[in-house]
Every structure is written in structure tokens, then in C-alpha cells.
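Saturday, quiet lab. Running sequence design on the C-alpha cells for the scaffold JK sent over.
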């Protein structure tokens, strides 16, 4: 992989957060009028129960650092290698950008709709994501790398998505976020000697916020069943593959992070995919066959294509540009082949809500 610039200042941390690449988290905007027209009345009992959970706010005091936090950073994190330190800082910046992306989107929807159900939901979710982003930013500030979130909001590019694309992508983002965090938490719960930074102690209740956010979008989609049938199934298929492929390639660019936690990137990713497949059966009529040999070979090739594109970019010049174009085409062809692999089909359960039981 192309070596990333060293993150050794707040300016470079902010530059990392602002950059827009195939692998970096994006900021989104959408059609607020269409969001305002959403109707969740067919899921009223489940919806009201979920709103009561949000109102109860069982994490209102969770994102507070303990007195031991700084001491543990000094004692444990100081022992990691400089290369590992850079991977972890990149992980924090990517995670902060993703959390803050949700905060911005949900807050903008809240401000631009009148629908009381959607307005209430977006207020709660923006509250949660703001806490998450601020908590990560505090850890970046420990290293003098705190990001000005107001400036990030103003300077990072925004991508317009139709509401249904927001539902598919954000539902998957929240659910796969849960699967990622809970897998890391369980690993470090069993192997506390591998917990090189205290932020991981917060991951269990933190990822339960992510899980509930996904539940919210599941109810919206189940209340509007046209989103889950016909031609929209092809969009569901696309977003499933895009989210899984992005995670796989991104994770394999930072293998030291997983190794430090006693994980291996490929097995970790497929554990996360399996959990996410189990969860998304609540709302999606299809799931990807992650055990199909061609699926696994395809994801590995996407990582190779990304690696070769980065090498070509570093080389530069005509030859570098030609090599970069060649591997970009190779990656695109592989993605298309993955898209047309057989998928698993299933009936949607009568009970939509799930518990974070992993």
C-alpha cells in the first residue's frame, strides 16, 4: 500500500478527516421533503417502544472518561510501535468522521422536517452520534490531534443520496458498526492484555447505540415495504456489496491494528460479515453468500487492485497513470462479478425488532 502521510499535527489530522476517497467516510445530504412524508404508523407499537428507549437514554452518563483513562494511555499506548500508533490514529480519525457524518445528517433532517416521528428520531440519533464523535475527539486531543468539528462540517464534501439510499447505506453502516465494535470488545474482554488503549472499554454500550440506530431504519423500511421489493432489491444488493467490500479493503490496509488486538484482518472481517448477515435478515430479503469461494477471492482481488493503484499513484508519470487505470478497471470488473454472484433469499420475520445479543 502507498504510505500515508504521518499524522503528527492537528492540521494533518484534519486533512485526513476532510479527504474524500473510495475508502474514507462520507458526509451526506438528502431530500428533506421526501423524508418529511414518511409514514411509520403501520409499525406504531414498535416505534413508540423504541422512542421510549431513546427517551430513557441509558447511555447519558456513559461517555465520561474515568480518572484512570490518561494513566492507561500513558502506560499501555506508549508501548506500541510508531507504525502501529499511526494505524490507530487513522482508525480514530476514520471513526470520528463516520460518527460525525451521522450527527450532521440526522441533525440536518431534524431541522428540515416537520413530521413529528422523524423529527423526534433524528434528534435522538444526532444526540448519540455527537457524543460518540466528541468522545473520540477527546482521545485525539490527548495526542494534540483534536479536530475542529465545526470546520470539518464546513470543509468536507457532501454526497447527495435519495432517502432510500440513505436508509440502505445508513442502516448497514449502523449495523456493521455494531458488529465491528462488539467483535473487538469481546476479543479484548477475553484478552485484556491486548487492550492497548482504554477507549475499547466503552465499545459495548457504545455499539448498542449503533444497534438501536439501525433498528430505527429497519422500522422505517418495514413500514414502507415498497423499499424492500421489486427493483429496490437490486439497490439493496449493491449497498450490501459496497459496504462489505469497502470494509474489507480498508481493514486490510491496517493489519497491525488487528494484530495488536490478537485478531487477523480476514477472519475478523468475515466474523463481522456473518453477524451483519444475521442481523439484516430482519429487513432485507437477501443476504450475500460470504462463504462462496468466488466471493472471498473477489474481495481479496479488490484489495490487491487497491494496493496496486496506490503503488501506481506513488510512481506517477505516464506509466504510473496507465497502471493505475488498468487496476481501476480490474477492480471495477471484479466488483461487477461479485454483484452477480448468487445471493441467499429469505422471508422477512414477523417481529422486526432484535436484541444486540452477539
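Result came back. Writing it out in full:
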Amino acid at each position: 500500500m502507498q504510505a500515508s502521510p504521518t499524522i503528527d499535527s492537528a492540521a494533518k489530522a484534519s486533512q485526513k478527516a476532510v479527504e474524500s476517497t473510495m475508502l474514507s467516510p462520507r458526509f451526506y445530504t438528502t431530500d428533506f421533503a421526501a423524508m418529511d412524508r414518511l409514514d411509520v404508523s403501520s409499525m406504531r407499537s414498535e416505534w413508540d417502544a423504541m422512542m421510549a428507549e431513546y427517551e430513557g437514554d441509558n447511555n447519558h452518563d456513559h461517555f465520561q472518561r474515568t480518572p484512570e483513562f490518561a494513566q492507561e494511555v500513558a502506560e499501555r499506548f506508549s508501548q506500541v510501535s510508531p507504525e502501529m500508533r499511526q494505524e490507530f490514529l487513522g482508525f480514530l480519525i476514520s471513526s470520528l468522521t463516520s460518527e460525525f457524518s451521522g450527527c450532521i445528517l440526522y441533525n440536518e433532517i431534524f431541522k428540515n422536517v416537520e413530521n413529528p416521528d422523524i423529527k423526534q428520531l433524528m434528534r435522538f440519533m444526532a444526540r448519540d452520534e455527537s457524543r460518540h464523535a466528541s468522545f473520540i475527539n477527546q482521545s485525539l486531543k490527548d495526542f494534540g490531534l483534536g479536530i475542529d468539528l465545526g470546520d470539518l462540517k464546513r470543509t468536507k464534501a457532501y454526497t447527495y443520496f435519495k432517502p432510500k439510499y440513505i436508509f440502505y447505506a445508513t442502516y448497514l453502516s449502523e449495523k456493521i458498526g455494531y458488529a465491528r465494535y462488539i467483535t473487538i470488545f469481546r476479543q479484548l474482554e477475553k484478552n485484556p492484555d491486548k487492550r492497548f488503549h482504554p477507549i475499547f472499554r466503552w465499545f459495548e454500550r457504545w455499539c448498542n447505540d449503533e444497534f438501536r440506530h439501525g433498528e430505527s431504519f429497519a422500522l422505517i423500511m418495514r413500514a414502507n415495504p415498497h423499499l424492500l421489493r421489486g427493483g429496490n432489491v437490486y439497490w439493496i444488493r449493491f449497498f450490501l456489496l459496497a459496504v462489505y467490500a469497502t470494509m474489507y479493503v480498508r481493514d486490510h490496509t491496517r493489519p497491525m491494528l488487528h494484530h495488536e488486538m490478537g485478531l487477523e484482518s480476514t477472519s475478523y472481517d468475515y466474523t463481522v460479515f456473518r453477524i451483519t448477515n444475521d442481523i439484516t435478515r430482519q429487513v432485507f430479503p437477501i443476504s450475500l453468500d460470504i462463504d462462496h469461494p468466488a466471493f472471498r477471492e473477489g474481495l481479496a482481488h479488490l484489495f490487491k487492485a487497491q494496493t496496486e493503484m496506490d503503488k501506481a499513484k506513488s510512481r506517477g508519470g505516464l506509466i504510473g497513470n496507465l497502471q493505475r487505470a488498468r487496476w481501476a478497471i480490474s477492480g471495477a470488473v471484479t466488483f461487477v462479478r461479485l454483484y452477480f454472484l448468487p445471493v441467499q433469499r429469505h422471508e422477512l420475520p414477523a417481529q422486526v425488532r432484535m436484541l444486540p445479543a452477539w
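Notes for JK: The mean pLDDT is 93. The first strand starts at residue 27 and ends at 29. Ask whether to fix the surface positions before the next round.
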